[in-house]
Amino acid sequence: MAAGAAIFDVDGTLTDTNHLHVVTWWEAFRQAGHTVPMPDIHRAVGLGSGDLIERLLGPGRDPAQDSAISSAHKALYGTYSDRISAFEGAGDLLRALAGRDWRVVLATSASGPELAALRRAVDADEAIRDTASSDDVDEGKPAPEPVQLALELAGVGAGQAVFFGDTVWDMEAATRAGVSAVALLSGGIPRADLEAAGADAVFRDVAELLGRLDDSPFRSPAG
Where a domain ends, among 78, 93, 110? Predict the structure, then answer.
C-alpha cells in the first residue's frame, strides 16, 4: 500500500529559480513604467501572475497592463530555460520517496514550456506520478485548490499527504487544504515567516531533507 502523497512545489523548492523570477519580474515591471523593489517582488514569488501583479501594483493600477507585464516576465524568464538548475539532491529525493511508495505529485504555478524546463532540470520524471499546474486550477496558491487537486491526482485524503514548499503561500495553501506542510529555506524566506504561515517542520534544503528522511514527516506512512 502506498505511504501517501508527497506534494511538491517546484520553484525555490526543487529548483534554484526564485531569484531568476525576481529579476525578470523587476525588468517586466520596469518596461511597463513601474519601479518595484526587488525585496517586495521576492516576497510575492510563488503567487500566480495575476495575484503577484495585483499585490505589487495594488488595486488602483491600470489592469490593462497586466497581460503585457505577465507576457514580458514569461519571455524574459524563458531566456534562462536552458540554464535552470535543480537544487542538489532534488531528483534523488523524489526517487527516494517514490521508492518508499510515496505518490509524488507536483503542485506549481508554472505551466507549459516553463514547467517542462523545470522538470528537465529536476530529471526525475520516473518518480513523478502527476502534476497540478496553473493551467489546471482557477485559483493558485495561497488558495487551497492546487493542493486539493494534487490530492485528487494522488488518490489520497488530506491526512495522508505532506506538502513541501518554500514560500508563505505554499504553507498557507497546504494549511487551508488540511495537509501537513514542510518548508524549505532554499527559497530565501525566513524561517519565522514560514512557521507563522503554518509550517510543521523546516529544513534547510532538499539535500538536508534527503539526508534526514528517517527524521522527517516522510519517515513512515502518513495515516
Answer: 78
Model pTM?
0.94
* Contact predicate 200/178, CB 8 Å: no
Residue 51 falls inside a structural domain: yes
- Residue 209 maps to a domain: yes
The rounded distance, in Å, linking the Cα atoms of 8 and 92 is 14
User: How wide is the angle at C-alpha 175 spanned by C-alphas 185 and 129, nearest 5°?
Assistant: 75
What pLDDT digit, counting tens, does each position of 11-44 carry?
999 999 999 999 999 999 999 999 999 999 999 9
Does residue 146 fall inside a structural domain? yes
SS3 190: coil
Q: In terms of DSSP H, where are the helices of 14-134?
A: 18-31, 38-44, 49-57, 66-78, 90-99, 112-122
Q: Per the structure block, which three cell numbers stand in for 140? A: 493558485
The conformation of residue 86, written as its DSSP 8-state character, comes to B
Domain of residue 165 covers 4-17+85-215
- CB-count burial class (<10 Å; 0-12, 13-18, 19+) for 64: exposed
Q: How far is CA 134 from the centre of its chain?
A: 11
